[in-house]
Amino acid sequence: MTLMTLQLYPTTIFAVASEFETFLGRFDYEVRDDMKIDSKGLVPLLTTGKAILVDVRFKEEVAAWHTGFALNIPLNELPRRIGELPKDKIIVAACPHKDRSAIAMAYLRSKGYDAKYLTDGLIGLAELLRGERAKDFMEDMNKAKTK
């Protein structure tokens, strides 16, 4: 049994490397620009249902504080849970800053998803969605869900 696992494992690693190499081979200034989005650009995409925010933080971080409207898939679970993500929407990966979300974005793009990472992170999104902006945003999100 162990021998079979050892034979299959390198093949899986090779396939992932090949997809990532394809992504890297297509990387140019246009891709570099397209892979980023800030909170001000994200909000209209969320309220119109064109994008999904994926919080890639660990479960303990999400338990301590979370947005309430993001899908939580920790970065280390993303390969196993990728099927939960729709291919017909923009997937915006987010973490407090941008280190893990950039990794998630690259992985998702290598798998054929239209993915971006949140450049100002969840910290920037929390700063943007304060007071009346939070109220307006949640009202718009609720309207989008009922459409």
Automatic annotation (TrEMBL):
Top-rank taxon: Bacteria
Instruction: State the SUPFAM superfamilies in the record.
Output: Rhodanese/Cell cycle control phosphatase
Pfam annotation, one family: Rhodanese
Name all Rhodanese domain ranges: 47-130
* Coiled coil ranges: none
> PANTHER family given for it?
FAD-DEPENDENT OXIDOREDUCTASE, OXIDOREDUCTASE
Entry protein name:
Rhodanese domain protein
